[in-house]
């Protein structure tokens, strides 16, 4: 992040800004001087992300010059701030603190203070609370303080691109360089690793651990080429990926350095130190602890924290998009660790495979109440007689382990432990061909599960090649898409003729709204149809809608409306489940209108109306080619 920070210790325009400010000028001159001395100054160029999503709660800022934008990247809401305006802790309302981010629109200068400074001033001068709404709210409701929980500080992991955390240009050497020259360069630059480049291609990585374990410990000749001690099979991360992804990748593979690429171009290196010094957060430590477990009992104990994690995220007013990614990341970690434990007990797999998540896990949309949908894609070299017993025991152990961790067995048995869903790639290709060419009711039901897939562990090429083959056959296939639309319309928003919400009349949860099947699933279904029609491969519903708008399958306005409706409905669901967990109840999807304010009820009707309208548009578009 291009900025410089320094303590104010001399006469500066900040002093004049504080003395003339409508809030700060009310303080005694001595305290204004103290406030000036406690400030950190930042100068930023246009486009700099000053505080990523989730970071506003960590600092109070004053714009000294230039113009900023406060933006909710999930909902698209934005406001502009100019010189003299405050933002962040205390100044930004509580509901926005966790979701909004700050970006410089022009060259700008700001002063920043830690939360403790404002807390102390408000305690000494209570009249200031009228200017700082989120401080006042935190005083009354400390349990909802976004600055008080690790979950809130974790939110920026989702929205902060890795490229903003790179501190310097990559330190590189040719592979023929000597070990001694490499060590000397690392000492001169004060770094713990060097990347090896050959013909503009990244070919290796050497760390201080390599020097210690492979050179010093074995008394290796330091005149040898450094390539002899380098790690050649490198994991890398893309510069625009979220920081959370990098941390989980490091935890999963027990590594401390990740080269950062922009497509294929090397742009830098990040380390666990770079990340954790800015992002110490409980979800990251939870995932890291999961990978350290050696028994199912240990994993069970950790999985019990997921409900509490969702409570923390709801209290921090996290977006549903961020919450889904964080909760799903924990499921991914549990799944991968169970796979690793299964391989330790059964031995290495006899042929390549890919463990694949389906449904909400594939879409990064899980909540604390989730069953498991998964499958196995095996290499075409698989032979049932030679390899079947291994993969049957392997998948049974992993699926039973997930069930023990709270992810109950799928009622429809759509799991890798079911023989049908544990097949070679060529069999999976035949499954999809039949579902597309013969879209009968069961095939359409399976399509809704197995067109949302994401590789979790193994040979990812098995899925990517399969996915591309499938999209070739669905893109523009009006007959198949018409059947998909007909099937999707079985899930309708609960709106009556006059726009009133219709509550369920019977069953186990009368007089409630099924937020999942009546609200969220219809949006997921719409996005899936758009994606299949456009040949779009992304699985997350929010991202699908954005990609399909870019591909022309749905208008930008309609896609934005659906994203906003999804965010609103999913946040209602998350908050509802968090309240149930706090009351010792099992979380579910059935919301009573009594839980909502009149304002929320009005927005609920608007969200349902958006879905209803766009279902009608699709129905009309494909009505001619249905049968």
UniProtKB/TrEMBL annotation:
Molecular function (Gene Ontology), one example: [protein-PII] uridylyltransferase activity
Alphabetized Pfam families for the sequence: CBS (PF00571), DUF294 (PF03445), DUF294_C (PF10335)
Gene3D superfamilies listed in its UniProt record: CBS-domain (3.10.580.10), Jelly Rolls (2.60.120.10)
Annotated ranges, domain CBS: 165-222, 230-288
InterPro entries: CBS_dom, CBS_dom_sf, CBS_domain-containing, cNMP-bd_dom, cNMP-bd_dom_sf, DUF294_put_nucleoTrafse_sb-bd, GlnD_Uridyltrans_N, RmlC-like_jellyroll
Keywords of the record: CBS domain, Repeat
PANTHER family in UniProt: CBS DOMAIN AND CYCLIC NUCLEOTIDE-REGULATED NUCLEOTIDYLTRANSFERASE, CBS DOMAIN-CONTAINING PROTEIN CBSX2, CHLOROPLASTIC
Protein's recorded name: Cyclic nucleotide-binding protein
Lineage, uppermost ranks: Bacteria, Pseudomonadati, Pseudomonadota, Betaproteobacteria, Burkholderiales
């Amino acid at each position: 992040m291009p900025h410089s920070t320094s303590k104010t210790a001399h006469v500066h325009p900040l002093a004049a800004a504080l003395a003339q400010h409508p809030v700060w000028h009310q303080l005694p001159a001595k305290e204004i001087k103290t406030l000036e001395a406690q400030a950190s100054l930042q100068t930023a160029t246009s486009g700099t992300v000053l505080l990523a999503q989730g970071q506003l709660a960590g600092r109070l800022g004053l714009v000294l010059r230039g113009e900023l934008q406060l933006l909710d990247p999930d909902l698209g809401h934005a406001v502009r701030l100019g010189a003299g305006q405050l933002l962040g802790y205390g100044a930004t309302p509580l509901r926005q603190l966790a979701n909004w981010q700050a970006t410089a629109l022009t060259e700008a200068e700001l002063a920043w203070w830690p939360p403790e400074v404002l807390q102390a001033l408000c305690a000494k001068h209570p009249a200031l609370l009228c200017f700082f709404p989120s401080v006042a709210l935190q005083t009354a409701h400390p349990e909802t303080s976004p600055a008080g929980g690790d979950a809130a500080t974790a939110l920026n992991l989702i929205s902060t691109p890795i490229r903003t955390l790179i501190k310097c240009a990559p330190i590189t050497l040719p592979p023929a360089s000597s070990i001694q020259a490499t060590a000397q360069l690392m000492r001169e630059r004060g770094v713990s690793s060097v990347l090896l480049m050959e013909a503009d291609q990244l070919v290796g990585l050497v760390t201080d651990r390599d020097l210690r374990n492979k050179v010093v410990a074995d008394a290796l000749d330091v005149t040898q080429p450094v390539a002899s001690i380098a790690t050649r099979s490198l994991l890398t991360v893309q510069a625009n990926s979220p920081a959370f992804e990098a941390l989980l990748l490091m935890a999963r593979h027990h590594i401390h350095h990740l080269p950062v690429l922009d497509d294929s171009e090397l742009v830098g290196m990040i380390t666990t130190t770079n990340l954790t010094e800015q992002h110490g957060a409980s979800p990251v430590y939870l995932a890291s602890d999961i990978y350290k477990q050696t028994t199912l009992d240990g994993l069970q104990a950790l999985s019990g924290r997921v409900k509490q994690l969702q409570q923390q995220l709801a209290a921090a007013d996290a977006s549903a998009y961020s919450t889904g990614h964080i909760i799903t990341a924990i499921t991914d970690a549990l799944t991968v660790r169970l796979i690793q434990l299964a391989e330790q007990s059964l031995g290495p797999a006899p042929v390549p495979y890919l463990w694949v998540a389906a449904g909400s896990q594939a879409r990064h949309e899980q909540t604390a109440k989730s069953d498991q949908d998964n499958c196995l894609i095996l290499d075409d070299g698989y032979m049932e007689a030679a390899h079947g017993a291994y993969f049957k025991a392997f998948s049974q152990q992993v699926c039973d382990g997930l069930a023990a961790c709270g992810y109950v067995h799928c009622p429809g048995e759509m799991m890798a432990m079911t023989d049908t869903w544990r097949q070679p790639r060529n069999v999976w290709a035949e499954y999809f061909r039949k579902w597309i060419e013969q879209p009968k009711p069961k095939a359409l039901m399976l399509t809704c599960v197995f067109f949302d897939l994401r590789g979790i562990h193994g040979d990812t090429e098995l899925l990517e090649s399969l996915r591309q083959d499938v999209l070739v056959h669905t893109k523009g296939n009006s007959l198949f898409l018409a059947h998909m639309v007909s099937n999707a319309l079985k899930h309708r928003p609960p709106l009556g003729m006059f726009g009133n919400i219709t509550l369920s009349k019977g069953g186990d949860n009368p007089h409630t709204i099924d937020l999942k099947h009546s609200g969220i699933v219809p949006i997921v279904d719409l996005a899936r149809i758009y994606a299949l029609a456009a040949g779009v491969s992304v699985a997350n519903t929010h991202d699908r809608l954005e990609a399909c708008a870019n591909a022309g399958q749905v208008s930008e306005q309609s896609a934005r409306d659906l994203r906003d409706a999804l965010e609103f409905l999913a946040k209602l669901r998350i908050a509802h489940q968090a309240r149930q967990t706090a009351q010792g109840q099992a979380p579910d999807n059935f919301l009573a209108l009594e839980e909502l304010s009149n304002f929320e009820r009005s927005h609920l009707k608007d969200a349902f109306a958006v879905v209803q309208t766009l279902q009608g548009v699709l129905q009309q578009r494909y009505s001619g080619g249905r049968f």
